[in-house]
Write a sequence for this structure.
């Protein structure tokens, strides 16, 4: 047991599932029984659907246990570590057995997430032991020029992973070509897309990979200041970043003459965002760092020419930076060997919604949506029918079933009307109403619009009003046309990405699910049975045995009937709260 | 989903004068006084101290740093994080991101609203809980999720969310 290790997954998702309690339980078992194993923590390995995860590494290999609670933790410690017999029924991954969960990892290629779930993110030594900071040392040792670093990034074909998909190498070259006494590198960690969490996982799981990527970028463009702009909603990521930055300073990866490169000076600080989605836009982000309201500015001048504090600046997203050290260490060709002709390498996706295996996956570009959802994700929850997948958050769109074989790369996804975005993939089944989804996103963008451009500020509000009335059963003929007209005007007349893409969720759902809109407007029906005001509740006489439970729970006394007799619902009184449906034990309530 | 705040000036006029110990602010003022881009960290520091940004704090920061009150007010009302009214001791943030919305986050908010007798953005009469709706907390695969303090709770049902709050309340009211 002396050589055994027990590692508890303590990313935000692990903690939310109860990981801390499991860690404390194992710690107390270890102390009270004087057990000789080593207890460690790591971050998210991507299998969020099985959290809390506990890995046991012993002389037989690695054993990953899922859905561990305190009770299971006791069993695992006593059976596996004390009696040397692994508890097979809780295993989700092992070197010696196949498990159904293995499918989750098949086809994944981990480049950006290479260390997540494998190292203690609060230990720089563990990062170094897995080739960490080797890329920086290679640049210093082999005296690689700034230009050839940029050429490697260009050759790798890496494109911005925050959603824009602009060539990272080109961006770096523009910043390098700008002449100035000081320049900045910024990491955009303001992951605001609802439904996306890959940046959080990366920062929590492998902060040094992002920092090393930023250091290499700073070397390539000649920057001497760095800022990581991180959402305040990610306290654990900020905590671990600050630990990692301190460690990097102590080891000389930050500071003066970094890694022995004379004259290469850099420090990086963390700036906490204050909660504004628009700050994901690069000019707004810089305004926010400068302490101003986060409102976008007109481009050009681009940040590469005039950015933070008026100096040339390069901004990339978390995942983009995390790829950089791997590309320098393993070569641009190897990176470019993954993916498609125009979209090279891998992309991390946050797989969520009505899916069996939700979590974080990293796949080569070009894999089809079908393979990601069905092979890795295990298909739709509760045997329901797949309806659509939402890609790209509030700027993206819904891809319907007949396009499920679309390969994931920047251009193919854009052709469907959605965008690649930062990688949120929310799966929807037959019970999700597409009009309600469009309303949900417009509600979000309408609130998050900074207010600078009239069409974005007022147009999104008008669109939201129309969508809300459609969902409430007050839709009118001509509403669809008004939505379309507003959508194109907002797209054409907004300064930044928020406004230019805000109508996308409406346009894609109109393109693929127009019949749902029409059913709401003309028939006053919600085909997904989601929009409350459009539902009708009725009692099925054959199933009703007159137990009176529905009548007792009805808050507006819309249900009448004597005991042991069939009840009825007064439709004029019914407020469609659905309480009768949830309370009835005899399936006697019909919803349509 | 950002919390829609009341217009702060009107809110401040309605509230009785809230007295706070402004001397607590001095270390923060000292730390950020000369740094560029210090406005947001100053406001964040103030809010961390008091749970909101009192009007008097705006004046004090302005006196010490020369920052414009109007600029500060502009920033404080732009970002969702800042509050100009006092809040409860414990803030419940119910996630209304896409994944949570699809998994019926509305039901969680409804259950909490019913159990605590407050609406979104309000504080309980004992001053213990404030309920907020927030955009994505980034725990999407555990949807629906809520965050209390720095801790997230996942795979909620209306019932389990209410149960968690009950436990927290008991813990809070038990003398240490």
């Amino acid at each position: 047991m002396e050589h055994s290790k027990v590692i508890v997954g303590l990313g935000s998702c692990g903690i939310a599932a109860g990981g801390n309690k499991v860690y404390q339980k194992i710690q107390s078992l270890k102390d009270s029984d004087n057990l000789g194993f080593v207890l460690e923590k790591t971050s998210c390995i991507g299998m969020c659907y099985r959290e809390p995860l506990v890995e046991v590494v012993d002389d037989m290999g690695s054993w990953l246990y899922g859905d561990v609670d305190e009770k299971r933790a006791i069993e695992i410690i006593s059976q596996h570590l004390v009696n040397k017999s692994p508890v097979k029924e809780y295993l989700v991954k092992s070197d010696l057995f196949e498990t159904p969960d293995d499918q989750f990892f098949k086809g994944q290629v981990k480049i950006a997430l290479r260390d997540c779930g494998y190292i203690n993110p609060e230990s720089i030594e563990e990062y170094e032991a897995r080739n960490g900071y080797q890329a920086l040392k290679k640049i210093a040792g082999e005296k690689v020029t700034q230009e050839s670093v940029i050429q490697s990034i260009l050759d790798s074909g890496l494109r911005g992973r925050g959603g824009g998909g602009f060539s990272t190498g080109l961006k770096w070259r523009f910043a390098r070509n700008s002449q100035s006494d000081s320049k900045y590198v910024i990491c955009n960690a303001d992951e605001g897309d609802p439904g996306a969490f890959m940046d959080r996982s990366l920062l929590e799981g492998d902060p040094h990979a992002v920092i090393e990527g930023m250091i290499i970028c700073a070397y390539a463009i000649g920057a001497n200041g760095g800022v990581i702009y991180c959402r305040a909603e990610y306290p654990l990521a900020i905590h671990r970043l600050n630990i990692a930055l301190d460690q990097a300073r102590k080891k000389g990866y930050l500071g003066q003459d970094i890694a022995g490169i004379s004259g290469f000076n850099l420090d990086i600080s963390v700036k906490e965002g204050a909660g504004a989605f628009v700050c994901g836009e690069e000019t707004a982000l810089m305004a926010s760092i400068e302490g101003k309201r986060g409102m976008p500015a007109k481009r050009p001048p681009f940040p590469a020419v005039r950015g933070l504090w008026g100096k040339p600046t390069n901004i990339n997203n978390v995942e983009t930076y995390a790829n950089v050290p791997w590309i320098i260490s393993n070569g641009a060709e190897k990176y470019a060997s993954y993916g498609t002709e125009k979209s090279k390498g891998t992309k991390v996706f946050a797989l969520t919604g009505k899916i069996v295996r939700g979590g974080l996956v990293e796949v080569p570009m070009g894999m089809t949506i079908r393979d990601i959802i069905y092979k890795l994700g295990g298909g739709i929850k509760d045997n329901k029918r797949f309806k659509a997948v939402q890609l790209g958050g509030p700027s993206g769109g819904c891809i319907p079933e007949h396009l499920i074989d679309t390969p994931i790369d920047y251009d193919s996804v854009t052709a469907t009307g959605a965008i690649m975005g930062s990688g949120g993939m929310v799966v929807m089944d037959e019970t999700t109403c597409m009009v309600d989804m469009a309303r949900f996103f417009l509600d979000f963008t309408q609130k998050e619009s900074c207010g600078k451009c009239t069409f974005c500020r007022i147009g999104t509000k008008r669109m939201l009003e129309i969508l809300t009335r459609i969902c409430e059963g007050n839709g009118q003929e001509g509403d669809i046309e008004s939505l379309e007209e507003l959508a194109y005007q907002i797209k054409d007349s907004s300064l930044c990405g928020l406004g230019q893409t805000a109508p996308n969720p409406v346009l894609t759902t109109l393109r693929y699910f127009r019949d749902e809109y029409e059913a709401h407007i003309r028939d006053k029906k919600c085909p997904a049975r989601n929009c409350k005001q459009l539902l009708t509740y009725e009692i099925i006489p054959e199933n009703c045995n007159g137990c009176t439970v529905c009548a007792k729970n009805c808050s507006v006394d819309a249900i009448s009937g004597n005991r042991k007799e069939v009840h009825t619902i007064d439709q004029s009184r019914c407020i469609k709260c659905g309480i009768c449906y949830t309370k009835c034990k005899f399936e006697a309530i019909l919803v349509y | 989903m950002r919390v829609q705040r009341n217009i702060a000036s009107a809110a401040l006029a309605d509230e009785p004068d809230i007295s706070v110990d402004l001397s607590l602010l001095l270390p923060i003022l000292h730390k950020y006084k000369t740094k560029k881009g210090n406005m947001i960290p100053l406001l964040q520091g103030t809010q961390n101290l008091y749970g909101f940004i009192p009007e008097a704090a705006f004046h004090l920061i302005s006196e010490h740093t020369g920052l414009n009150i109007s600029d500060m007010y502009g920033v404080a009302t732009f970002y969702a994080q800042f509050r100009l009214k006092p809040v409860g001791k414990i803030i419940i943030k119910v996630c209304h991101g896409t994944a949570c919305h699809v998994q019926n986050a509305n039901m969680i908010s409804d259950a909490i609203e019913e159990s605590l007798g407050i609406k979104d953005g309000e504080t309980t009469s004992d001053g213990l809980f404030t309920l907020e709706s927030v955009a994505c907390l980034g725990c999407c695969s555990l949807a629906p999720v809520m965050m209390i303090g720095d801790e997230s709770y996942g795979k909620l049902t209306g019932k389990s969310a209410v149960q968690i709050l009950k436990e927290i309340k008991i813990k809070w009211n038990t003398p240490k």
